[in-house]
Design a protein that fits this description.
The chain has ten helices and 13 strands. By secondary structure, it is α/β, with parallel strands linked by helices.
């Protein structure tokens, strides 16, 4: 049986140590400030991105990786004798899945690649990728991993608030949350990822109310397999949420991650999210 390797993209927002431990290959998206292009997570860290965002008059833009980057990654893994499961950001938010599919088709005679649209983003994608990599580590085959990922994806939930919808609107990723536009003076929009796109949940007037909404969302789940917190640079709020979440889930097992340059280009600074994976029930 051929060993299986997992490929994803930089919007997974997984800490580098996790990717190294689980041998996850990450293909970077591109972030543009004017004519300057950066590879997400390679040339530009989350911290560097938000420093640039605060200083730059340019609104950042993003683009999917070229299919050639996926071809390079797949060819290298195939040369090592691996089959590949390649899991990516929702196709409703990016053309990354399309680039991966073009590469798969170009290498069909040489590589066994299964490309999957996670229907998710950021650490939601990250949790799905982690589950796949753990199965690969434990010896599951390509079909078993792909099947598990497709069953898991609908059970991974991303729920967040942002300080402004400006970045989502300018980046064209606002989805049904456009219903909130025009009513956002002194409002914190609470959003969720559903059916692969950004959906509106509610409008709250204070940050504390928005944080309460995140807590209430987590409390809806009787079973949590993984729990994560996402933020740009909101350590005090993260600490408060960790204390409040501790009765629901062991604090030391909650993954805390920064959302990176690509997600930050669309979410902007100041956002916080929770990610809940219910796992796959048998």
């Amino acid at each position: 049986m051929r060993p299986v390797r997992i490929v994803t993209d930089s919007t997974c927002d997984l800490p580098r140590a996790v990717c190294e431990e689980l041998h996850i290959v990450v293909v970077p998206l591109n972030v543009y400030f004017g004519k300057r292009v950066y590879r997400d997570g390679v040339d530009l860290s989350a911290e560097q991105f938000f420093q640039l965002l605060a200083q730059s008059p340019e609104v950042p833009k993003t683009s999917q990786p070229a299919s050639g980057l996926f071809e390079d990654a797949y060819s290298q893994l195939a040369s090592e004798g691996s089959a590949i499961v390649s899991i990516h950001l929702s196709a409703k938010l990016s053309g990354t899945v399309r680039s991966a599919s073009v590469a798969r088709d170009a290498l069909r005679s040489r590589c066994s690649v299964e490309v999957i649209d996670s229907g998710s983003a950021s650490l939601g994608l990250g949790f799905i990728v982690m589950a796949a990599a753990e199965l690969a580590r434990d010896g599951a085959n390509q079909w078993e991993i792909a099947s598990h990922v497709r069953r898991l994806s609908p059970n991974v939930h991303v729920y967040c608030f942002v300080d402004t919808l400006e970045y989502l609107q300018r980046g064209g990723r606002i989805g049904r949350a456009s219903a909130f536009l025009g009513t956002l003076l002194n409002i914190r929009p609470v959003l969720k990822l559903e059916d692969g796109e950004v959906q509106p949940v509610e409008k709250v007037r204070t940050r504390s109310k928005a944080l309460d909404s995140l807590m209430e969302f987590v409390e809806l789940f009787p079973r949590i397999e993984r729990l994560g917190l996402l933020h740009s640079d909101s350590l005090a709020d993260v600490e408060m949420l960790l204390r409040r979440l501790e009765p629901l889930y062991p604090r030391e097992q909650i993954m805390v991650a920064h959302y990176g340059p690509t997600i930050g280009a669309h979410a902007g600074p100041g956002g916080i999210g929770v990610v809940v994976s219910e796992g796959v029930t048998v």
